[in-house]
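Notes, p. 3: input format for complexes.
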Amino acid sequence: MAPRAVMVGPPGAGKSTIGRRLASALGVGIVDTDSEVERREGRPIREIFAADGEAAFRRIEEDVVRESLQRSDGVVSLGGGAVLSARTRALLRGHAVVFLDISAHEGLLRTGIAGRLRGHPGKDDETRPLLQGDDPAGRYRELIRERRPLYEEVATLVVHTDRRSPGKVVREIAGLIESTETDAAGHAGGQHGTIGEQHH
Ligand SMILES: Nc1ncnc2c1ncn2[C@@H]1O[C@H](COP(=O)(O)OP(=O)(O)OP(=O)(O)O)[C@@H](O)[C@H]1O
Ligand SMILES: O=C(O)C1=C[C@@H](O)[C@@H](O)[C@H](O)C1
Ligand SMILES: [Mg+2]
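Output follows (200 residues plus adenosine-5'-triphosphate):
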């Protein structure tokens, strides 16, 4: 058993939104590893970071990702930093992995960081502990720059999501996954592709 698709990308790229809608388009279940970590720990991610630190969170996340990849035959959406683990990157080989790419500009809007800097309290203030602090926009840009090579390393499909509606993104991914699966080779992770233009 293997997931039909694994979603990776930076905060705000749409892993949860697109993942949920893709699962429903394919008629399968969805596992969001951030929610799974919180369910297992019985506390929010921000509390795990605050009480035990990022390294402890990454260890829990690594276990949750491994088990989710083993158990799921649907869509698995990974936390934004899951690809920092070399062990996780190795486990992703051979899977159909979709990198939801986004420019820093669009990401700052979608995460609410841009609004917060203009004085609007964002509902996501508490759910992204790494993007708190003095310079969340700078931290976000840095995080995308550092991680892009890792997302690209694990991806079999790169989807640029700036100025593309979730519905359109989902239809394109679902179409590609279904056609890849019915390919003679039948290896979902075998095909590499790109959808959309890059805007960064
Ligand atoms: N293609 C899109 N076009 C416009 N808005 C989008 C698109 N995809 C997602 N969004 C919106 O951007 C916001 C962030 O999306 P989402 O929470 O799915 O990101 P995420 O990758 O799961 O982030 P995190 O890593 O923090 O969990 C949501 O408000 C969502 O509705
Ligand atoms: O980008 C990150 O490192 C993170 C993203 C979120 O999905 C959570 O997994 C957590 O807040 C860490
Ligand atoms: Mg999410």
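Residues 9, 11-18, 34, 80, 110, 128, 161, 164-166, 169 surround adenosine-5'-triphosphate (ligand 1) (CB under 6 Å).
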